[in-house]
Design brief:
Radius of gyration: 30 Å
Largest sheet: 2 strands, antiparallel
Helix content: 25-40%
Strand order of the largest sheet: 1-2
Number of domains: 2
Number of strands: 8
Strand content: 15-25%
Keywords: Membrane, Transmembrane, Transmembrane helix
Number of helices: 4
């Protein structure tokens, strides 16, 4: 569960992307898209989608990709590899920002959104190390000891047992880290 703790920035990005994802599915499923018509009542521009709701024998049918402008082309495409423009007789028609966006795209983009941030967390947690600078008279100046979280206790014990450490600030850091380790072990 530690990989699901997102920062505020990551939460905002996920929220925005999921709102766009849900909006695209919603307008396609219910056919909610403003359409600009010509004088013959043909749709020339669909703002969000070319999906429509249809009244059938058993009631209202909702769905995506119900409107096909060409009788010869009826394949379904994966968003964003769809035709945003289609030719019909003598004109071109804009199918909207989210044409043919259905539950398959919704599911895959949801996995991609969350998967990206979870994989990023897994990779960053593997490489996470804490660096503490050592200031002593007898050790080389500016030497750094890396504390890997899984081996922290052993390294602290070895550092605390050194008799050559004279720097009070470093001793205090070691004591604080040792207390933290005792609390973590309890």
């Amino acid at each position: 569960m530690k990989y699901l703790n997102f920062t505020d920035k990551e939460k905002k990005i996920i929220l925005i992307l999921m709102l766009i994802n849900c909006f695209a599915l919603f307008v396609n499923y219910f056919g909610l898209s403003p359409k600009i018509k010509n004088t013959d009542n043909d749709y020339y521009v669909c703002l969000f989608t070319n999906s429509v709701k249809t009244e059938g024998y058993y009631g209202t049918a909702y769905g995506t990709n119900l409107v096909q402008y060409s009788p010869y082309k009826s394949e379904s495409s994966f968003y964003p590899f769809v035709d945003f423009y289609k030719s019909w007789y003598d004109g071109f028609y804009f199918n909207g920002l989210f044409p043919s966006y259905d539950s398959t795209e919704f599911f895959i983009y949801t996995l991609l959104i969350f998967g990206f941030f979870i994989v990023k967390k897994v990779i960053s947690n593997k490489n996470e190390e804490e660096i503490i600078p050592i200031k002593t008279e007898t050790l080389i100046a500016k030497k750094q000891v890396k504390f890997n979280k899984s081996k922290e206790y052993k390294q602290l014990k070895n550092l605390y047992d050194l008799e050559i450490i004279n720097d009070e600030e470093f001793k205090n850091k070691v004591k604080l880290l040792k207390k933290k380790m005792k609390n973590d072990l309890e």
